[in-house]
DNA sequence: ACAAAAAATGTAACGGATTACATTTTATGA
DNA sequence: TCATAAAATGTAATCCGTTACATTTTTTGT
């Protein structure tokens, strides 16, 4: 591979002139410029970006830690990241951590070893914790080169992009309450996650506001997989007094739950309503189409990347917390509670699979 | 960030000794080694990998070009890549190309500019085509630092990992034929893709072997999305003589098709059988659970990465073509053709009264 | 046409780790 | 104990593009 010295030789100029021709053409006379450009072409010269970045100390790479790319929602988030990164000349290094702290630490180490400039974390966990912290004795507690998105740390030492999960869960629960449901179950995500905690809190907010007592047995654990929704639904249906509605913390679990309910010979939503969260593409094509909370997944990714780049360029002094909007999407998987006499909320539209 | 010279100073040795202590400890006396290791710890020294890689000329990054990460199947493939890459100390640079040639070329350029050592392409397209080819006049037509996986080029100038799509489609079609179906439709993928061509070929192979005439109107175009399966099914159902079975080239389209069929008031599989391809996680949780062809998605990714690393390390002189196995997974979305008197499935008699 | 300012170009240091080669220290054998 | 081999360590070049600073050439004003 030809280098800049080769080009300089061909063009009979110095390496500085070649570099300037490519970086700041204004500083080079037209005549020389042409000579250099011709030489560049003749040599098939492409600047070695490893050298450029080594010298500049910036890799222009961002690591993204994702529990699993196989999750449809995360895939959309990553899509958005990719878009923003590409627009800003950054590249995305994928870190599929499978939720393993060891793996996370390994990817986080890429930042300390100058393989990447910064990191985006989609899980509520500080991957730098395990690593030796930068000098804690400093006066300026500089921002970590990190952004936390979707599932954020309680007190993150970095910018965050998040949904108001509590409000969203509350909105969905209110929707179910408005349909006359009183025994509303929830299939949760992993116990430790703040996101799960927030959604449960929103669910309880709505119950409380409606004067419906909270029943612990209606909270069922899940792990965001189809299978866990299926299993959790089985448990809920086996209760002495089963729920008339199940609110799942993501769409996969909702789809799994619907499957289980139907296998039991029950109808959705005639016997049991089911709601999800995320509005993945499969939600609109579920049977029945799934009522869910739509999240701007791609926007999560784009925003996270933009924030991280701002951090890296020192444009941020405080760590902002960006809250993205959600949307309650009512489809056909939720309906009036069996036997409930409720007033028709006319705003209720059960749309078909939408376009897009 | 401390560097090797800082450590050398602390340990009162030369930089060479520090480097050797870390790279080839055998060459360093125990006494010196301990001194150096203590200094490394004291300085919190982490080798700057940008410098290492700049000097070695190897980035240890691999670019993966994927039409869209939002596709569940590709997400699994990437998962496998990640695993193999991590095991081999490589990192994955994600290139979400959206099928855009310009974008592909941009990512491919990362290889020429030493941002990555090699590239994995999941689409049947040579991204280097657009770029100036390496000196074609050479005597040794060295392998491109590229591997093509899943959807491969007809005559790829690089190793490939592929499924025998023709055989798989043939097997699925035989399954449908064995159930007594005679009007079997196919919802295809994008017209240009070799993968689609192969699956159609396999479908026709099976029809021909069974003496069932091929009907062009039963081939419906799709683009692998849920919506396109939905739309294509609508078209097929509107035919004067609609199919009794629909074989979709991926699971998303199959799920979309099932949705459409049910909306029409028809039952799956009682009225129409539907089959998919890929066996994504949603397939088992479709209603009814989807009969499909299981592909070893993660293994595609792992194999592709291993092959690429072999190419990069010069372990390969010829470009191998790896064919991975498929598996016909029969679930509940396919059943006997309506009105067909069919025998034991394993007898597979094909002399049913034809209503042509 | 000449001095001074402006523009163009060149020289060489720099970034951080590796490593060929040179040099010093230690071990070995007679 | 000395010569020599072996082990340990050090010196400095190298990878390649950028850029501060130095030098040369051109332009400008009078």
Strand order of the largest sheet of chain A: 2-1-3-4-5-11
CATH architecture of the largest domain in chain A: 3-Layer(aba) Sandwich
CATH topology of the largest domain in chain A: Rossmann fold
CATH C-level label of the largest domain in chain A: Alpha Beta
- Number of separate helices of chain A: 12
Number of domains of chain A: 3
The helix/strand order of chain A is HHHHEHEHEEEHEHEHEHEHEHEE
Helix content of chain A: 40-55%
Which value, in Å, is the CA radius of gyration of chain A? 26 Å
- Global outline of chain A: elongated
Secondary-structure map:
The structure is a homodimer of 356-residue chains.
Chain A: H1 4-11, H2 15-23, H3 30-43, H4 49-56, E1 61-66, H5 72-87, E2 91-96, H6 101-112, E3 118-121, E4 146-149, E5 160-163, H7 165-178, E6 184-187, H8 194-210, E7 219-220, H9 226-237, E8 245-248, H10 251-263, E9 273-275, H11 281-284, E10 292-294, H12 297-312, E11 321-324, E12 327-329
Parallel strand pairs in A: 1-2, 1-3, 3-4, 4-5, 5-11, 6-7, 6-8, 8-9
Antiparallel strand pairs in A: 10-12
Helix pairs in contact in A: 1-2, 1-3, 2-3, 5-12, 7-8, 9-10
The structure holds a DNA duplex (30 and 30 nucleotides).
């Amino acid at each position: 591979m030809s280098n800049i010295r080769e080009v300089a030789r061909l063009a009979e100029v110095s390496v500085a002139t070649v570099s300037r021709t490519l970086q700041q053409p204004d500083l080079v006379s037209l005549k020389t410029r042409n000579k250099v450009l011709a030489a560049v072409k003749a040599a098939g010269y492409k600047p070695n970006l490893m050298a450029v970045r080594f010298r500049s100390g910036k890799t222009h790479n961002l690591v993204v830690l994702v529990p699993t790319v196989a999750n449809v929602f995360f895939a959309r988030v990553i899509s958005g990241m990719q878009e923003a990164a590409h627009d800003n000349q950054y590249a995305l290094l994928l870190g599929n951590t499978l939720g393993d702290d060891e793996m996370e630490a390994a990817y986080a180490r890429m930042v300390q070893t100058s393989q990447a400039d910064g990191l985006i974390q989609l899980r509520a966990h500080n991957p730098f914790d395990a690593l030796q912290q930068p000098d804690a004795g400093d006066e300026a507690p500089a921002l970590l080169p990190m952004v936390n998105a979707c599932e954020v740390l309680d007190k993150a030492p970095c910018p965050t992009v998040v949904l108001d999960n509590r409000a969203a869960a509350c909105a969905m629960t209110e929707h179910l309450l408005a349909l006359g449901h009183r025994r509303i179950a929830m299939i949760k995500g992993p116990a430790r996650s703040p996101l799960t905690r927030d959604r449960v809190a929103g669910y309880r907010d709505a119950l409380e506001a409606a004067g419906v007592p909270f029943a612990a047995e209606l909270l069922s654990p899940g792990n965001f997989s189809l299978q866990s929704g299926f299993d959790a639904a089985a448990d809920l249906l086996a209760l002495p007094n089963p729920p008339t509605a199940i609110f799942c913390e993501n769409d996969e679990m909702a789809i799994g739950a619907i499957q289980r309910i139907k296998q039991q010979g029950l109808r959705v939503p005639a016997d049991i309503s089911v709601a999800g969260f995320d509005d993945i593409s499969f939600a609109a094509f579920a049977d029945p189409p799934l009522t869910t909370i739509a999240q701007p997944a791609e926007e999560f990714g784009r925003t996270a990347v933009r924030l991280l780049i701002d951090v890296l360029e020192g444009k941020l002094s405080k760590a902002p917390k960006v809250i993205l909007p959600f949307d309650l999407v009512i489809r056909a998987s939720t309906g009036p509670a069996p036997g409930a006499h409720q007033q028709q909320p006319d705003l209720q539209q059960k749309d078909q699979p939408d376009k897009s």
